[in-house]
Design brief:
The structure is a single chain. The chain is α+β, with helices and mostly antiparallel strands. It folds into two domains: 158 residues, no CATH class; 142 residues, NAD(P)-binding Rossmann-like Domain (Rossmann fold), CATH 3.40.50. It is built from ten helices and 13 strands. The strands form four sheets. It has a six-stranded antiparallel β-sheet. It has a three-stranded parallel β-sheet with strand order 9-10-11. A two-stranded antiparallel ribbon has the order 4-5. Helix 1 crosses helix 2 and helix 6 crosses helix 10. The radius of gyration is 25 Å and the shape is elongated. The two termini are 47 Å apart. The model has no long low-confidence stretch (mean pLDDT 90).
């Protein structure tokens, strides 16, 4: 996906073609081997980092003028810090072996960068200008040889820019599980699917032997057409058709766990079910699931939660 994304976008292609060491790390754009001056008046090479603003797999105008940097604090050739870069010290884990220690905030005169070529070369030029005083001719244009691209293990058809926009890629990675299963795609189950389909789980198995009927349309996320309802698809196939557009690992199983779920006198079928209440139930369940894997803090470690609608009261209990 990374090489395809670079080839598809002229600004990223231009960066690569003009000799910059361009790579993608998840939803971050990296320009590696950027020379800079250190406080000891030596030249080292660091990595410029920017989040990507994408429309599917097409780059849009950068939505901010900030960049991050992996390396020591950049300095002038005389060893004094480059305060004109703005920003300050941070600790953002881009990948297990890549941690950005600084952020830059240099806004162009027009107030925004046109594209990622302009943005990344602007910062690279500022950094290498000081390094070139110490080591004449040094450049970020290293013309690296293209390396074989590692196999793409992302479960998504496109990049998760929501996580990179707020720098939570490392936290989101805690949800990179091999597989999960959702037993039953009724009201709550369908909303659980809607939420976990945004998580980087490799495979999501859907297990339900029922068909998607008209009354389901008024309970489930989304809005089926009348033509879809006439076909009476299995629930697992209907929901796969929706969420496979985003997540590669939707695996349908049009079957019941056992025959007791087919009981015509099942009281569950006669209980009142309201989409908003079941969606809340699903949200609380998914939040608890994320707590168990360290995505959210979990100080209470409750075993269950209850919500009382007339008093708007949410309680939890450990027993």
């Amino acid at each position: 996906m990374s090489r395809e994304l670079i080839n598809r976008n002229p600004d990223l292609t231009r960066l690569r073609d003009e000799g910059y060491d361009v790579r993608l790390q998840g939803t971050y754009l990296l320009v590696r081997n950027v020379p800079y001056a250190t406080a000891q008046r030596t030249v080292r090479r660091g990595i410029l980092v920017s989040t990507l603003n994408l429309a599917g797999d097409v780059t849009k105008q950068p939505d901010d003028h900030q960049a991050q940097f992996i390396g020591e604090r950049p300095c002038h050739a005389d060893g004094t810090p480059m305060t004109e870069l703005g920003g300050g010290a941070i600790q953002n884990k881009i990948a297990p072996d890549l941690v950005a220690g600084f952020t830059f905030s240099q806004k162009p005169a027009r107030g925004h960068y046109i594209d990622y070529f302009e943005k990344m070369t602007a910062y690279a030029t500022m950094l290498e200008s000081q390094a070139a005083v110490i080591e004449p001719g040094v450049s970020a244009r290293v013309n690296r040889v293209e390396e074989p691209e590692p196999e793409d293990h992302s479960p998504f058809h496109y990049l998760d820019t929501a996580s990179s926009r707020v720098d939570i890629n490392a936290v989101t990675a805690k949800l990179e599980l091999d597989k999960i299963a959702i037993f039953g795609l009724g009201v709550t189950g369908s909303y659980v699917l809607d939420l976990v389909a945004k998580a980087p789980v490799a495979a999501i198995h859907l297990i339900d032997g029922d068909v998607f009927n008209t009354h389901n349309a008024f309970r489930a996320p989304g809005a089926p057409s009348i033509e879809e309802l006439r076909e009476q698809p299995f629930k697992v196939d209907y929901f796969k058709g929706i969420y496979w557009k985003m997540h590669k690992g939707i695996v349908p199983h049009a079957e019941y766990v056992d025959v007791s779920e087919e009981d015509a006198d099942n009281e569950y079928d006669k209980n009142i079910q309201i989409a908003d209440m079941n969606a809340l139930n699903a949200a609380l369940a998914v939040m608890k699931w994320k707590k168990l894997f360290g995505f959210y803090a979990d100080n209470e470690r409750e075993h269950y939660s209850t919500y009382t609608i007339d008093t708007n009261l949410l309680t939890s209990d450990e027993t």
